[in-house]
From TrEMBL:
Catalyzes the reduction of 1-pyrroline-5-carboxylate (PCA) to L-proline. The lineage of its organism: Bacteria, Pseudomonadati, Pseudomonadota, Gammaproteobacteria, Oceanospirillales. This is Pyrroline-5-carboxylate reductase. The gene is proC. NADP(+) binds at I8, G9, A10, G11, N12, M13, A69, V70, K71, P72. Residues 163-267 form the Pyrroline-5-carboxylate reductase dimerisation domain.
């Protein structure tokens, strides 16, 4: 990726993406990160060797790609304060802020911005994330490739052509790590009741999830077939799965994901009106 990349915001997600970019071959000298004061930037600069800046406008001046990595609640003030610089430079802008739609961010930046919205998830912090991306009409194919390469530095990328589908992405991957953490928590509690030490139960549950995910990722079979392959007629797995089906686990998951998507839509309205 032969670009000058500026990160507006230097939090955990920005740091993870920057680290992934450097591991993929991007020179630290081509990356700039900003924050309100130098103390917030010191550890990032020391750890990764990137440029740092407290002035967003100065950081945007030479950038080909600008990544908006600040909290949604302050996005408006940040964007409006550097809108003139963005209009002059015309970079690709990538927002990783949840809940703010492309039109709103584009308006705050002065309009006609080449803008990509990205919904990453927390496993991006360990390099195995999943990100959903949406591009507005001003984004070129070359810029789509830039956005793909940038987010592939911390995991897989899936594009959606309808911005509203990012709410579904939030439900299936953005918020979903917490679903699996809940599953680990519940399995550990149940295993302890069955007599296992908590630490043993936790290690077994997490490793089993890792193994199942790896099998699903590497297999050409769909999850339903992989599930069936583990189930012997009249066996222990069949009994456990039947209990989950009787308890309407599928409905619980579907309802939870719908609630997640509904909340994402509501947050978008709240944030754009603020």
């Amino acid at each position: 990726m032969a670009s000058k990349i500026t990160f507006i915001g230097a939090g955990n997600m920005a740091g993870a993406i920057i680290g992934g970019l450097i591991e993929s071959g991007v020179a630290p000298s081509d990356i700039t990160a900003t924050a309100p004061n130098e103390s917030e930037l010191a550890s990032l600069k020391q750890r990764l060797g990137v440029n740092t800046q407290t002035d967003n406008n100065a950081a945007v001046k030479d950038a080909n790609v600008v990544v908006l990595a600040v909290k949604p609640q302050i996005m408006r003030s940040v964007c409006e304060a550097m809108s003139t610089s963005v209009q002059q430079q015309s970079p690709l802008v990538i927002s990783i802020a949840a809940g703010l739609d492309a039109d709103t961010i584009d308006q705050w930046l002065g309009g006609k911005t080449a803008l990509v919205r990205c919904m990453p998830n927390t496993p991006s912090l360990v390099g195995i994330g999943a990100s959903g991306l949406y591009a507005n009409g001003a984004v070129s194919e070359a810029q789509r490739t830039q956005a793909t390469q940038l987010m592939e530095a911390v995991g897989i990328v899936e594009w959606v052509e309808d911005e509203h589908l990012l709410d579904a992405v939030t439900a299936v991957s953005g918020s979903a790590p917490a679903y699996f953490f809940l599953m680990f928590e519940a399995m550990e509690e149940a295993a302890v009741k069955l007599g296992l030490p908590a630490a043993t139960a936790r290690r077994l549950a997490i490793q089993t999830a890792l193994g199942a995910a790896t099998m699903a990722q590497q297999s050409d079979k769909d999850p339903a077939t992989l599930k069936q392959n583990v189930m012997s007629p009249g066996g222990t797995t069949e009994r456990a799965i039947q209990h989950m089906e009787d308890a309407q686990l599928r409905t619980t998951i579907a309802d939870a994901m719908q609630a997640c998507a509904d909340r994402a839509q509501a947050m978008a309205k709240e944030l754009s009106a603020s």
